[in-house]
Amino acid sequence: MKLALRRVGGTLLALVLAVLFILLVWEPFAAPAAKAPPPRHYSAQITRDEFGVPHIHGATDPDVTFGVAYAHAEDDFSTLQDVVAMTRGRYGAIAGADGAKIDYVFHLLDARGTVDRHYAQFPADVRALLDGYASGLNLYAKRHPGEIKLARLFPVNGQDIAAGFALRQPFFFGLNTAIGPLVAGKPLPREHGPAEDGKPWPDYAHGGGDQVDLPPPASGGGTAKASLMPTAEDGSNAFAVAPSRSSDGVTRLVSNSHQPWRGGVAWYELVIRSDSGWHFAGATFPGSPYPFLGHNETLGWTNTVNRPDLTDVYRLVLDKAGTHYRMDGKWLPLESRRVLLPVRFGPLVIPVWKTVYRSIHGPVIVNANGAFAVRYAGMDRIDQLDEYYRLSKATTFDRWMKALAMQAVPSTNFVYADRAGNIAYIYNAALPAREHGPDWRHVLPGDRSDLIWHGPVSWDKVPKIVNPKSGFLFNSNNTPWVAAGPGSELDPSGFSPDLGIESDMTNRARRAVKLLGATNPIGRDELERIKYDEGYERAGYVKWTLDAIAGLDLAGEPRLQKAQALLAKWDLHADGRNPADALAVMILKDPMVASYELEPPPDPKAQLDWASKHLMKYFGRLDPPLGEVQRLRQGKVDLPMDGGGDTLRAATSWNIDKDGRLDVKHGDSFIMFISWPKGADGRPGPVRSESIQPYGAATTRPESPHYADQAPLFVAHRLKPVRFTPADIAAHATSRETIAQ
Fold it and tell me: Whole-angstrom Cα distance, residue 469 to residue 251?
């Protein structure tokens, strides 16, 4: 008997060990086969300046993108691998459950299928750029095998790079606000619309369901994980000043993007130049072969997130078996596909099978409330890769506008300026061509084909302002109507409400309108002062929150009474000079997020209680200086940080460290001041630019001198020069290498 039990136990142990071994090794073999681009010779020179910023030069444009990938890998190969894993549906094998959620969306949106359907029709020069970029990544991986996180992740090819765009682009305009609640079976948020100042946010129910009561959002924001996917919360500021409004007749442009400081949508600065005439300074994201914003010799632009209603949700009528849905009185098969999600759990990778669905509307999510189809702008398109390239190659306003008119980039505002003195604001959006009549702000019937829109509205219906009389343009993630200030506004009545253009304002927008309108002329110093403004207007969610806290009856709660009295004396600036700054910045963070994400307001008493309790626990007082509480931290660098969420000097969100400090992780990121100063003859001369980032060029390389070398300048509101011309680069070069294959 004992011998039999031993044999059974030994067999079970062997089975367990076999299963564990399989879970240790199966994922790379089950992954799609990796394929390299067609063989081709590439060569690029990477020259780094005193801040480690790479200047990539090649004979051809594909040589340049080859060098872009290699240089970026030298500085942040870790994040690039995460992005590559996303383009293969394998990120869960690196990041566990959080990564598997992204893999599920990758399959739900059919990102790879989109590429497979359209890649061959891409212009040959764009495909060559993507293959060049992929080849640069492959070369770095080959030379540094010890850094590779996931077996069989390389080689990659141009299709892999394109798939990353198909996956991530829709999340810039907030596709997550539809997919997230649907997957969780929760009510959808309301659509964009104005809320009266000083009054509670309205009912946020969307689509017929009753909105449940929600607790206050978790203040502070969790762990230090880097963000790989963009969200609608990723904001920005942009300013353009025409010669007529500047003090010295100079055209100026300020790019002030607000992105996470680490991860797949963190900016990476670079300067590119090819012998084919491609010359551009700016910044890009991991996984992109070229810059998304910045300038060439004659023109420049920047972007801010806009939030038009580019998504519609449809409730499907399924048959009893759940395999067909009704459309115009007929039953159509509901497409379904089983997908495998790898989910890392410690050293093991667990296989999880999920089913993704699709109808003629688009992706379908089935939850306890039914089946819901989602249709969104830019669906089944990847030609934004073509448009971005044409934008960066344009040398005149007309050519730049022609590229933008492709309407392949489904969202994001563009603010433009050029050497000739033109400034422009384009509310860029692939606005759905909806029929007038249906209530597009709610869940739509899914059994009517006439409610399925096709393609964007014509380019002439997209809001634009070119060379306004005010002499300035701006955007801070607000409605486009006020982009040029009083007297030069767009008339909302000229645009159909079915376009879904947002009408709300951010605090940054209110401050920008006020400060720009009151400043004349707007010279270099004035523009810098406006950009670094730390003020709040007592309006919108700020007024509602402060008024609600002031009206609380806190009898018998001495800590809250003291916090209430301190907040009443706040001067509405997050500059570190008022004793209430830290308390106010902490209290306003969650209302800011709720307002921006169209969610119900958090409980004001809970906000006051959390912030005051935290300050007392970690600082022993309610009024510690803001700079003691809010920090910029990278390795051994630990510096005070001013600003607040939704100020023009943005410190949007932070992690709470063990010592109670707020370690800023999102806000002002890549900042660039661009101008075309006049020469001795009175004509605009060569472009000049300055820039800064929160950390440095090598954000994930602690051993690098450029891991955090820009941080002291960043917290001090200072910029560094951009080395744009070959002569300037050569004069300040600290390293030079040639890579080739």
Answer: 15
Q: How open is the CA angle 62-292-653, to the nearest 5 degrees?
A: 135
Q: What pLDDT, on the 0 to 100 scale, is given for residue 410? A: 94
* 521 preceded by a cis bond (ω within 30 of 0): yes
* Spatial distance between the Cα atoms of 654 and 634, rounded to a whole number of angstroms: 13
What confidence score (pLDDT) does residue 1 get?
A: 67
Residue 33, pLDDT score: 84
Exposure of 651 in the CB half-sphere (CA atoms within 13 A): 33
Rounded CA separation 474/242 (Å): 12
| Cα 313 from Cα 403, distance rounded (Å) | 30
How many C-alpha atoms does 443 have within 13 Å on its Cβ side? 22
Burial of residue 11, with CB atoms counted within 10 A of its CB: 0-12 exposed, 13-18 middle, 19 or more buried: exposed
The string of pLDDT tens digits covering residues 264-276 is: 999 999 999 999 9
Q: Which of 347, 306, 373, 271 is nearest to 64 (CA)?
A: 271
Amino acid at position 522, single letter: I
Residue 20 near residue 34 (C-beta atoms within 8 A): no
List the strands of the sheet with 423-426, edge to edge.
464-466, 423-426, 413-418, 299-304, 293-295, 279-284, 268-274, 54-58, 43-48, 735-740
| Bridging pattern class, strands 251-260 and 662-676 | antiparallel
Residues 339-390: tens digit of each pLDDT = 999 999 999 999 999 999 999 999 999 999 999 999 999 999 999 999 999 9
Residue 149 in any domain: the answer is: no
Instruction: Using the CB atoms, write b or e for 97-127: b if 16+ within 10 Å.
Output: eebbbbbbbbbbbbbbebbeeebeebeeebb
**Beta pairing class for 370-376 and 413-418:** unpaired
Percentage of residues in the chain having pLDDT higher than 70: 93
Task: Specify whether the CB–CB gap between 418 and 251 falls below 8 A.
Answer: yes
Q: What dihedral angle (degrees, nearest 10) is formed by the CA atoms of 271, 272, 278, 281?
A: -10
Taking a C-beta distance cutoff of 8 angstroms, is the pair 139, 739 a contact? Answer: yes
Taking residues 620-637, report their average pLDDT: 98
Q: Are strands 311-316 and 370-376 parallel, antiparallel or unpaired?
A: antiparallel
Is residue 704 a part of any domain in this protein?
yes
* Cβ atoms of 234 and 258 closer than 8 Å: yes
pLDDT digits (tens, 9 = 90+) for 488-517: 999 999 999 999 999 989 999 999 999 999
Which two tokens mark 213?
A: 């009561």
Residue 189: cis peptide before it, omega within 30 degrees of 0: no
CA torsion, points 238, 240, 246, 248, in degrees to nearest 10? 100
How many structural domains compose the chain?
1
pLDDT at residue number 205: 27
| Strand order across the beta sheet in which 363-367 lies | 335-345, 348-358, 363-367, 370-376, 311-316, 444-445
- List the CATH number of the domain containing 554: 1.10.1400
Dist. CA 23–CA 688, nearest whole Å: 55
Q: Is the pLDDT of residue 202 over 90?
A: no
What is the residue type of 283?
A
| Residue 169 resides in a domain | no
Q: Which residues contact 187 (CB under 8 A, 6 or more apart)?
A: 181, 204, 205, 206, 207, 209, 210, 211, 212
Tell me which residue range forms the domain holding 644. 540-724
Whether 622 is in a domain gets the answer: yes
User: What is the C-alpha to C-alpha distance for residues 690 and 290, in angstroms, rounded to an integer?
Assistant: 19
